[in-house]
Amino acid sequence: MTQVIVTVMPKQGVLDPQGQAVAGALGQLGFEGVGEVRIGKRIELAIAGDDPAGQARAMCEQLLANALIEDYSIEVPG
Amino acid sequence: MTQVIVTVMPKQGVLDPQGQAVAGALGQLGFEGVGEVRIGKRIELAIAGDDPAGQARAMCEQLLANALIEDYSIEVPG
Q1: Measured between beta carbons, which residues in chain A are less than 8 angstroms from residue B64?
Q2: Domain boundaries, position A12
Q3: pLDDT band at residue A20 using 50, 70 and 90 as cut-offs
Q4: CATH code (residue A37)
Q5: What is the ipTM of this complex?
């Protein structure tokens, strides 16, 4: 099994309501000087086989990311 | 403004239903050899001031992470 880390973030220019909500909540809690907040997903998978990064790419295309509004990146540590 | 990346993941041993659902869906899509899947959040913030990492830590304690069930880490790239 190879550990693979997939990061899925909203595309630049796409509205991120979750990030805006967090930015607003931080302001209400008294945190000053908070600029843009963007929130995405970090997905850690254990994948067997010869090409875990390629497998992860196919998983992103089919399930893990919405290509219309999200970008993804794949990292195989170590 | 300093860019800060906060990663929030379910603690080891805490059930991760979102990860289990994704693991099941990947199996149904025909992906074999998928082991554990764990899903957390990646939060990118722009923070002004002298101690952006310390600010981010306070934000995690108060809002961004649930210390009962989640671990967080803070990274200041560059």
Answers
A1: 22
A2: 2-75
A3: very high
A4: 3.30.1280.10
A5: 0.93
